[in-house]
Amino acid sequence: MKKLLICILLVLFWIVKMQAQTDPFLIYTVPDTIIAGTPVILSTNLNLVAGNEIIISKNDAVADIQNASNPRYYPVGFNFSFFGDTYSDFSVGSNGYLTFQKPPWKQHLPFLLPPGNPPQQMAPKNCILGPIKNYDYETNPGVYAFYKTLGTTPNQKLVVYWCDVPVMGSKDKATFQIVLNEDGSIENHLIFLPYSDYAGNRATQGIVDKTGTISFPDPNQRNNSSWITNAGLRGNSWKYTINGTGYNVDLNYSHQPVLLPSYIIWYEVGSDKPIGYETTLMVWPKKTTTYRAEIFTCWNEKIGESSVTVTVKELTPKYFFPGTGSTFGLDVPTGVEVGPFTLQVFNRWGQRVFQTSDAAIRWNGRMNNSGQYCPTGIYPWVLIIQVGNNPISNRGFVSLVR
Fold this sequence. Notes:
Elements: E1 14-18, E2 26-29, E3 33-35, E4 40-44, E5 52-54, E6 74-82, E7 85-93, E8 97-99, E9 127-132, E10 145-150, E11 157-166, E12 173-181, E13 186-193, E14 202-208, E15 215-217, E16 223-226, E17 233-243, E18 246-250, E19 263-268, E20 280-283, E21 289-296, E22 302-313, E23 319-320, E24 341-346, E25 352-356, E26 377-387, E27 390-400
Parallel strand pairs: 3-22, 23-27
Antiparallel strand pairs: 1-2, 2-4, 4-20, 5-10, 6-7, 7-8, 8-9, 9-14, 10-11, 11-12, 12-13, 13-17, 14-15, 14-16, 17-18, 19-21, 21-22, 24-25, 24-26, 26-27
């Protein structure tokens, strides 16, 4: 009884290796041995949608809107305490801040903490600046901001991050994270912030309450000032921990941004040429091959890799000796089911000397298995296996020796 080869691709996969950060990065594969040229699906447990998209299409705006009168709010995923109030959703300003204000304030440029006289009074309040700077969503439209809630209570965290967002007045791009922890603490990880001539290179780092009167800026002159070096700033982190009605600010907090996967690269081991970029990959190995998948953050930090070896059964012997009773044909590994196939063998003039669609029927070295003996020589063969509506072919040579 034969079944379509596609059934092979639907078997229950098992784990072959794992290595990663929080959730182990796994590759799954088909059972031990396949026939050369059979399609194999290499699948991973990786979800490359590392966060939900936050659509920002206009500079100096809030997410998903053209003005501040109709903001969009996103779920925190848990109840978060900020300056004594509890929030379950948040909004995002285009210039790099997370806010609980409803509606967000219309002024989105870098500003002094705490907000003072106009136009500073129009600065966003009840927010976390990550930092606030002049980012550009209009010159090069795209999706640059994301959010994702991780973990289980009481240790959940919301990660809001900006990835390779264009910066006004700079050819370089910024990447940073704001992390809300369920215990009320806040982490702020600056992966890279480039220098910018726009607005005097000013930026603001810190947090401010809903009244705009209580704030905790970075005390290292990073309050509406030019504090980014000409080479840009990398690897800075801050942590804000609740202290009564205020916060303690740790300026030397360990730089450990949340490592969310952003893209994957597949290789054949032994080659540095990528063969795929998706979480699942279909391959047609004609020899035993080890495949490796590497995963990276959006700032190109490798955070995991895994590999798996697909063992390939030789289709047929490379040499066979009809005089000793040996034959040439399709060797099907034990436990492997093969769908409809056709195996053809040709002589050097292109004349077909054998054909079968039954693995039990093998070439005995005679013309069509019943005619005259074929001479010693090298004979090309072609194997075509039908997978659904798609014929998959494999080719090779066999030497007939008398």
